[in-house]
Every structure is written in C-alpha cells, then in structure tokens.
Amino acid sequence: MMWTLWTILSLVVSALAIGVAVYFYKWVQALPVAEGNIDSISKLIRKGAFTFLKREYRILTVFVGIVSILLLIVFPSPVWKGGISENILAAVSYIAGAALSALAGYVGISIATLANVRSASAAKKGLAPSYMAGFRGGAVMGMAVVSTALAAAALLQILTGNADLVIAFSFGASSLALFAKAGGGIFTKTADIAADLTGKVELGIPEDDPRNPAVIADNVGDNVGDVAGMGADLFDSQIASLAAALVIAASLGKVEIEMVFCFSALGLLASIIGVLFARVGPSGDPGKALNGGTLLTCGIFAILTLAATLLTPEFNIRIWGAAFLGMLVGVIIGFTSEFFTGDDKKPVEKVAEACKSGPAFTILSGISYGLVSIMPSIIGIGVAALGAYKLVEPLGVGYPMFGISIAAIGMLSIVGMIISNDAYGPIVDNARGLAEMGNLGDDVLEITDKLDAAGNTAKAITKGFAIGAAGLTVIALLGAFQEIVESVTGEIISFNLMDPLVFFGTLVGAAIPAVFSAMLMLGVNRNSQLMVQEIHRQFDTIEGLKEGKPGVMPDYNKCIDIATVGSIKELIPAGLTAIVITLVVGFIGGVQAMGGYLAGNIVTGLFLALLMSNAGGLWDNAKKYIEAGNCGGKGSDAHKAAVIGDTVGDPFKDTAGPSINTQITVVSLVASITATLFATFSIFG
Amino acid sequence: MMWTLWTILSLVVSALAIGVAVYFYKWVQALPVAEGNIDSISKLIRKGAFTFLKREYRILTVFVGIVSILLLIVFPSPVWKGGISENILAAVSYIAGAALSALAGYVGISIATLANVRSASAAKKGLAPSYMAGFRGGAVMGMAVVSTALAAAALLQILTGNADLVIAFSFGASSLALFAKAGGGIFTKTADIAADLTGKVELGIPEDDPRNPAVIADNVGDNVGDVAGMGADLFDSQIASLAAALVIAASLGKVEIEMVFCFSALGLLASIIGVLFARVGPSGDPGKALNGGTLLTCGIFAILTLAATLLTPEFNIRIWGAAFLGMLVGVIIGFTSEFFTGDDKKPVEKVAEACKSGPAFTILSGISYGLVSIMPSIIGIGVAALGAYKLVEPLGVGYPMFGISIAAIGMLSIVGMIISNDAYGPIVDNARGLAEMGNLGDDVLEITDKLDAAGNTAKAITKGFAIGAAGLTVIALLGAFQEIVESVTGEIISFNLMDPLVFFGTLVGAAIPAVFSAMLMLGVNRNSQLMVQEIHRQFDTIEGLKEGKPGVMPDYNKCIDIATVGSIKELIPAGLTAIVITLVVGFIGGVQAMGGYLAGNIVTGLFLALLMSNAGGLWDNAKKYIEAGNCGGKGSDAHKAAVIGDTVGDPFKDTAGPSINTQITVVSLVASITATLFATFSIFG
User: Fold this and answer.
1) Do the domain assignments include residue B215?
2) How confident is the model over B217-227, as pLDDT tens digits?
3) Is there a domain that residue A363 lies in?
4) Which B residues, 185 through 204, put their C-beta within 8 Å of a C-beta on chain A?
C-alpha cells in the first residue's frame, strides 16, 4: 500500500464527483414529465438504446475475454519468463478498464434517456429549466466518467505502484471505446441519414415527424452514438493520458507521480465547481452559458494548480507551465474549430454561398475549408508539445517527455466539463425530437431549437478539444512506448527517420486511419441504404402512414433492428484491422518500425480527424444557415445542395472522424502492451 | 572536364531520343487535316493554349529571376563566406532548369495541338492511324522531356562534377513545374466544370457541343493542364531523382555516379524502343497497346541494365536489384490504381451502385474507396524503400540511402514511355472534341471515343506511377538533404522522432499538402463559378445560340480569358505558401525540424495525392459506367448523381492531386538548397 497525499485526494475528489453525479441523477429523475404520448415515445427510445447496448456488450465481452487471455500470456512479460502474478493483475486491470468504460456508457444512456423527456417537458416553463435538465443530465455523464478514471488510476497506484497496470486498464477502456464509438457512430448515422433522406428530402416532412419509421431509431442513435460513444472516447483519452504520464513519471520519481495526481484531481475539482455553477438566465444565451462554464473551469484549474505548485516545495513551476500550456492550447484548438464551423463565421457563409452553385461546389468548398482547418490545430498541438518539452527540458534527462505528458494532462484537466457540455447536445437534440413527436406546441419547439443550436456550437468546440487532447495524449504514449522499450532492453533508443524500418513503419501507420475510417463510412453507407429500403417498404405497405391518418403508426422497431444488427456487424472488422496490422508491423519491423508506425498513425490520424470533424460541422451549419433564410432559404436549390453536403458530413463528423481519435489511442496502447514481444522477436527489427 | 563512358552514352542516348522526337514531330505534322471547320477550331485551341502559356511564363520569369538572385546570394554557400563562382553556376543551373522545363511545356503544347486535329482527321481512315497520330504526338513530349533532363544532368556532371548544381537545376525545373501544374490544373478544371455544368447538366447538350461558349476553353485546358502540366511534373520527378542519386553517389565514389547515368541512359533507350514499336492492329484494343508498350519497356530496361551490370565488374548486382525493385513497385502501384479506378472492377461498380441512392452516397462511397486505395500504394512505396535499403546495406555505410535513390531511378527509368502514354490522353480527348465540333460523323466519333477511353485507363496507371515515383524520389531527397547537412556540419545527423523539434516539424509538414491543395481547389471553385456566370450571360444575350441557329457563334475567347486570368491569379499564392512555410520552419527549428517537416510532408502528401487521384478517377469512370447503360443509364437520377461525383473528382484528380507531387518535390529541394543556412542560423535548432 502506497498512500500519498495526492492519491488520497484524488480518491476524495472522485468521491465528491460521484456524489454530484448521484445528486444530479436524482434531481433530473425527480423532474416532471409532460402529459400525452411523449412519455411512451421516450420509453421507446430508452428501450431501443438499451437493446443496442446489451447486444453490443455481449459481442464485446467475447472480445475482452480473448484479449485478457492473451494479456495473461504476454503482459507485462511473457509467462514462460516467469512472473504470472503480474500478468494476472494486468489481465484483471484490463477487464476492469473495459467494464468501467461499459458502465460509464450504461450510466450515460440511462441518464440521457431520462433527461431528454424531462428537458422537453421543462421547456413548457421556459428556457432556463429546460437547459438545466439537459445540462445536468450531461453532467452526470461527465462526473461519472472522469471520477471513475481518476479513482481507478489512484487505486492502482496505491495498491500496486505499478504503472504498467494503468496501461492495461487504459487498454481495456480504449478497446471498449473503439468499438463503442465505431458501433454507436455507425448506428446513429445510419438512422440519421435514412430518416433525413426519406423524410426531409423525399417527402418534405419535418425532422422528427412521427410518421417516419426511422425517427425513433434516429433518436436512439443520438444516445448510443453521441452520449455513450463520445463519453467512451473521452474516458479513453483521459485514462490514456494518465497512463502515459504515470509510466514516464515512474522512471523519474515519486514527486512526479504526485504531480500527475495533483493536477488530475484539481482538474476534476475545477470541473465540479464549473458544473455546479453553470446557469443560464431566463432569456439568456445557452451557448454562452456552455462556453462560459468551460472558461470558468479553465480559470479555476489554472489557479488551483498554480497554488498547489507554489505551496509544495517539491513541485517545479516549469511542470505547472507545461500543464497550463496544454490547457491553453486545448482551448485555442476548440475555438479554432468554432471558427471553421460557426454559422456566423466566414467559412460557413462561403460554403452556403457555394451551395447556390449546386452540390458539387458544396462538397468541394466544404472539403477545402476542412483541409485548411487542419493547419491551425495541428500547429497548436505541435507548439504545445514543443513548448512543454522545452519548458521542462532544463530539469534533466527524461523530463522533456514528462512535460509533454503533463501538457496532455493539463489539456484533459477540464474534461469533466467538456463531457458535460458534450452530452448536453444529444439530450437536447432528443428533447427537440420529443417535443415535435409529442406535439408540445410551437413555444416549446422554439426553446428546444435554441437549446439544440447551442448544443451544436458547443459540440464543435468539444470535438476540436477531443482531437487535440487525443493528439497530445498519443504523443505522450509514444514517449511511454519508448520508456517501456528502454526498460525492457536496457538501451537508450531513438526512432531515426532515416532508418528505413522507421520510415517503413511511418508509411504503413499513415495508411491505417484511412482504411479504418473508410470501413466505417462504407458501413454507414451499406446500412442506411438498407434502412431506406425498409422505410420505403413501410410507406408503400402501411396504409395511411404517408398521409398521417390518425392512429396509423410505423413499425419503429424494424428500423432500430436494422441499425443495431448492421452496426454490430460492421464494428468488429474495422477495429480488428487496425489492431492486427499493428501486430504485423511490430513482428516484421520490431520496435523501430513500431515507433515510426505510431508517429505516422498519429500524424494522419489527426489530419483526417480534423478534416472530417470540421468539414462535417461546416456542412451542418451551412445547411442551418440557409434554413435560417439565407441564400434562398428552405426549399431552394441551395438548400437541397446543402442537405447533400450535410449528409456527406454526417458520417464524417459523427462516425469516422471521432472514431479515429480512439483508433490512434488503441494502436498506441497495443504498441506499449506488446513492446516487450517486439523487442524480443521480430523479423527485421 | 570529366568524360566517362556512361555520361557520354547518356548524351548519345539523349541525342537519339531528340532525333526520335523530331522525326515523330515531322511525321505528325505531315499528316493531312480533314476539310471543314475542324482546322479553324483547332487553331483556336492552339492560339488559346499559347496565349495562356505566354502569360504564365511572363509571371514565372519574374519569380525565377527573384529566386535566382537569392540563390546567387546563398547557394551552395553564402557569398559572405566567399566562393561566388560556385553560386553563379548554381544560379545559372537554376535558370537553365526552369527554362528547359518551360521549353518542354512549349514543345508539348505545340505538338499536342497539331496532333489532336490530325488524330481526328485520321480517324476517318480507321482506328490504327488515328491511334498512331495520338500516340506519336504524345511520344514527342515523352522523348523531349526525358532526353533534356538526362542530357542536362550529364553535361553538368561532365563540365563541373558538382552534384549541387544538379540540385539547383532540379529546383529550377520543379519551381516551374509547381506553377505550371497548379496553373494548368486550375485552368483545365475551371473550364471543364463550367462546360459540364452548363452544357451537360443544365441544357442536356452533349460534351464538346460547339454552342457551349466554354467548349474551346475546355479543350485548351486539356493541353495546358494535362500535356504541359503532367509533362512538367514528370520532368521534375525525373530530374529530382537524378539529383538525389547524384548527391548521394558523390559521397560514395565514381562507380556509383556511373551507375546512375548507366541506369538512366538505358531506361531512356528502353523507352525509345518501346515508343518506336508501339502499334495497334486495325481492330485492336488501344488500351492494351498502351499498357503493352509499358510492360515491354520495363522488360527491356530490366534486361539491358542486368546485362550492363554483369558486364561491368565494378557494378554491384545488389544495386541493380534496387533499381529493379523500384521499377517493379512502380508497375504494381500503377496497376493498383487501375484496380481502384478501372470500370470493369468492383470499386467502380460499387460506386455506380451507390449513385442510385443519390449524390451523398456517391460522394461517400467514392471517398471511402479512395481512402482504402491509399494503403496498397503507400505500402508498396514503403516496401520498395525498405527493400532497396536492405538489399544495398551490406555494401557499407552510406550505401543504403543510395539504394533508395537507385530504386527511384529504376521506377522513373521508363518515364519516357509513361509521359508518351500520358500525353496521348489529352490529345485523343481533344481529337474527340474536334470530331464532334467539326461534324466528322458517327463513325469517327465511335473511334475517337474508343481512343479516349483507352487514354483514361492509361491515365489511371500513369498517375499512380507518377505519385509512386515522386514518393520514392522525395525519400531519396530526404537522404540528399541529410547528406548536404552532414557535409556542411561535418557531423553524422539523424532525425529522431522523439526529438520535439523533429516531431514539431513533422506535424507542420503534414499540414502543408492540405492547405496547398485546398487553395487550388478553392481557386477552381471561384473561377468556374465566374465562368458559369459568363456562359449564362452569353446564352441569355446571344440570340439563337441556345437553339443552335446556323451561323450563330458564342464568344469563346471570353471564356478562355476568364480561365487564363483566374488561374494565373491563383497559382502564385498556393506555391508561395508552401515555400515560405518551409523557410519559416527551417529558421525556427533548424535542420532537425526540417527533417521532420520533410517526412511529414511526404507522408500526408502521398496520402492526399493518392486519395484525390484515385477517388477522382473512380467517380469519372463510375459516370462512364452508368453512361454505358448500367444502373439506369444516361439521364437517370443515378447518372445525375454520378455527374456530381465526377465534378467533385475533377479538381481532385486533375488539379490538387497531381500538384501535390510537385509540391513535395519542391519543398524537398528548397530544404536541400537552404540546408546550409538552417544549419548555421535557426532559433531553436
């Protein structure tokens, strides 16, 4: 047992966060639900979401089981070299990571499907109560995810003091996240695209019209894709950044380990304060409230960590500087994404303008701005890494990489707040749908529309943030990989780009995000075409459905079923491809090839993730900008072109783009886990 | 003077190639031109192309002038350190490189605009004569380009023995190529898109209908974009691969320099034989004839170089192995591209199928397959580099990088044949247009359609090949950069990915191709919208034009003017951005950051170039597949969706994609040229 001040405080703050989560959960649950059919519709959504989760988790249990047996055999060191007890601990940590990630997804879905209907109902009383229901619902997820990750890392540190186990735990969380994000992402866009194409485009009926057989599936998708998926993604980045920092810190000393827990605990504390104080005035701007909360949290984090550093003589201020730099760059990346996707900014206006010349120009201009948007974010990540390294370099050998890992911790410090903002989005999106389907009236729709729009803007920021955080984290994981290899081989290693194995690895690694994201998008393509056929079948065979004859209901479950079965079928191959190629490269080229492979994978992974997220957000908002009456308005040819752009952007921004985050993390962790093997056996390495 | 066997033979073979070029030029020129207005239309095209070229070259003269003054000051070493005579030679070499590249473009345009009308006219006599006119026209360009590059390198070697001058020469060729490719690419797609959207989509009139005011501009574009641009691109790769190999060989010994010239000269000889023997039977398949010629050339190259290696005791067979491997991988990459873009292959069928579900699915499936297509080619390049390195490694220190540069030479050995095949494409495309505009009848159209389709297939292969060649060349240039830095600093350097400057450079370098290609595509977007407006204006104001009243002619020159002015305005900023950021990174992070920067730039450059080329080719052929009567055929909704896909693909495959090749070469050369400066002054490096 190795109790230290900040591991204990980490547990305390985590407990506090769980307390807040429980309080918010009960608070949301106690809110009234409006009368009418809204309750029964929301229960359909809840049931659909749980059905999907159950089926998904069943498949993933098999996967986790197989991997944990493999871990038992090879990690941290092959059993034939002795030391089975460490391997058992690693396998258990892996399973715990996967289980807790699954649990976080489950809790998130559970609260989101309670909060959506209550947010819609509360909109009858005004914007503020409706906002609070949505935000506090999201905050349950935020608090639950971050506290679980931090508490697990602290417990593993206290009980074993072995950072390798945090790597195993993190790998468990990521491998679940990989599939949850991919599966949920395919589900949500399958339903969204099919609903839009048949409803909005073909029939001209509004979004969320209850006549559309895909409408419930679409709302289920918001939950399983955006709530559970995004939560799993950030859980994954959070725990991976902790793992990387702890592995590197372990080679430096106890003080550094303390600093990791100190900064993480204070980040969570800052998020708790931010979440508790988040409010919007009765006629206030919900978007500003969300961003205001983020900035408040950042400020509190900076002050608290600075104070802790100054008050603890062993803590070096340069390390605080790295954390602060990381946080700062995170915020800057978030706001860069907002510039490229905000509907009051030039890129959106230009794309909307291009829509007037038809769909081809819509696509070309969106992709072009998406490509341009890569530059500031990727340079931001580079500057953060370079700055953190240089800041901490004077402290001695081994410290510079620690600086980068601390920058990642700093960037992820406010992740509790970020997840809260992010989960708010799909909840109020659902609330809007329920208000429409439950006929709550135009006043309510106006409020939920406002909340939904704020959710979209906040999402642009949180997505940019998530990509930036993943970027820094995987750079730190590259450091952790190096650390592990050095501790195995007892040699100082470097990855020289002029070494052909490194270069070969870089090229192969660069191709992975492309293939991975293509497989997911082709999955969405296939499934949504199936669902469109099913919707057409229902419109053709169910009498009175198209016309909206009272009492005639579509068969919602059939569409939920198509999305569920389809996405579960598609999620395994893409994830496995990434993992298997990693192993093949490692066994062919050894640790040298693997170093290059990780770097190549990070570079094009960030490249594609930023392109897809930002282009997707841009098209979405260009469509909304036109719908607000610009460039010809709703129903014009420009609008039709914009809808096509939005449809292309949907799997970009909600399936492939954000899944790449998780893919690069998983691949980095696989490399760390198997480093010992590659260092021992490989064909060329 | 340093005459050696293979520098002399290089000059001899180059002279032979120039002889063949002159013979083919006269042969084509002597072919008869059909009666009617086809002659006057073809003269319009010729005039438009020369006007553009003249204006473009005027701007570029200024650019080349400025850069040559800068070179005079800093390359190979700053004048304030003495040694002005070397710098004068470098500046002269630079100007010579630019001038010869310009000349090659001029010759190419000149023959192409003679061959197009003669190919159309010859189609009256059958497929074989028409094919020969197109192919021999293309071969003039192929022979001229390769012989110029090889002769220049050999002369520089004989006269000075200074490989740095070949770098300067190569930089001259590339900086011209960068702008020629970008400018021509913007011109051709501006006109193509505008013509398609107003003609085919809005009015439903056929391609190349003389009523369309953009139709001549479209045909001019084929020449300035595809003939001059692609020629400049491959000239650039060819000379850059020679430069990289010679810089590395110079540090090894005279035998290695001889091998470089030996392999290059025999490659050109093989291409001469291939070109002279290219034939198609009267009812033969022109596509097979083109590919057959390529394979024949490869075979001859392999045998000749093997024989030369075996007969020369100093030549090591391992180095031959590297060249052979490079050639082999080049062919494999070419055929991979064909798999992803061939209209009898699965991807095209799948995308055509997706067109039935609308434009959004067309775009999504095309991008997805484009992303998948990256993998085999990029792994091919990686395997070639790794294989060449490992093959040559036993020869000692310094050799492995030489192996990679020789693989690039091997891959580019058959470039004479490749350029011939490639320039054939736009010539017969023009011939088809002239046959339509000149009313040469349905029989002629059928033949020219067949020849055009073969050109498209050959193009897919040559494009994949061009990207692969650029990939290997820039890897070799990275080696040359290292070589130059080591000779300046006197230290062995490596680029360690864990060095934050290297990593920072990698991230920034990765963003360059994105921004560069986005700027070009936005340029096409802007200009084609302008041209569409002009076409609408003409249709609205010129009476009887739409209806095709005899004697009523559109104002073709106005459209040519829009494309010319627009593309010249757009080509400078994109190119300058890439060059300036390179300098900024070098001055901030020194040679370490520059090493990473080049690697990042290569990786995402290849990534984007492959994605854009292959997705673009895929959409083009999916459209043709539907037009051939599949998936609903011409005029169906699927066809409309396919046209949108093709329009998106046009700037992908003909503007941005191929320009990236040149961008990565230019950036690599800039780095080599400025290496001395960065090694001396930089903020962090």
Assistant:
1) yes
2) 998 998 888 88
3) yes
4) 193, 197
